[in-house]
Amino acid sequence: QVQLVESGGGLVQAGGSLRLSCAASGRTSSFYGMSWFRQAPGKEREFVAASGGGTYYADSVKGRFTISRDNARNTVFLQMNSLKPEDTAVYYCAARMTSYGPYPYWGQGTQVTVSS
Q1: Is the pLDDT of residue 29 over 70?
Q2: Quick check: 62 and 115 in contact, CB under 8 A?
Q3: Rounded to whole angstroms, how far apart are CA atoms 102 and 116?
């Protein structure tokens, strides 16, 4: 049974920083891709950043967010700098065993609120 648990969300002023963590437990040794998604109120869930065969970012966060992994601790991080009110959302961690296709494993989400 794979579990993903996010932490590190909170309330921050515009221009501030937060670091999200996602700890994976269970059968994690075969994870290829670990990624972050977010969902703002009234909007669809959207891709933020991915790690697996390289790092990839949504245009809206490029240059401000950095994804990294600690494979020894089965943890993926999202460093978020220069936060904007439009970054306010629930952030979800996701993982998959392959380099393509849907993500079968998801965390419960962590709330990030950026005040103006």
Answers
A1: no
A2: no
A3: 35
